[in-house]
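step: validate -> pass
step: tokenize input -> pass
step: predict -> running
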Amino acid sequence: MKKFDKGVQWAERALICAAFFVMVAVTFAQVVARFIFNDPISWSEEVARYLFLWITLIGASHAIALGKHFCVDFLISRFPPKLYKATALFTVLCVLVFAAIMVHYGWSVAWRTRFQVSPALELPMCYPYLCIPLSGLFTIVHLVAGFFPGRGGAAPAGLEGGYAE
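step: predict -> pass
step: emit ->
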């Protein structure tokens, strides 16, 4: 599971870096075209919007892999250790259910919009929407990998020793 999780993390980093590079380049080209040549690029805003969506959702799953998601634990940090661990496990299970919903409904939306095209690029809308089920799938992989701390995966806060004891 560790190798698979590391492979998914590598794919996430590659997607995020590539999307960010293209988004910055397209946005810079748009600024140059608009203010220097007085001829804006009609499709640049759409590309930047879709790439930002991909960066955000894939970045969220990557943050889970690294254990870097923010956590407001003002109240639960005062719980006794067993209750704290149970609360953390419940949180992870809720995220797991939400990720499964993202995969199911995200795939459904992507499939239903495969013939709908975007206004400027005339790109099938399934491509922008595919980041939803992909992010959910990556999140599930990271959470399952975190279930087995000896085999890789960053355990969420409060569960560093593993989920099962």
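step: describe -> Residues 115 and 155 are 40 Å apart (CA to CA).
step: cleanup -> pass
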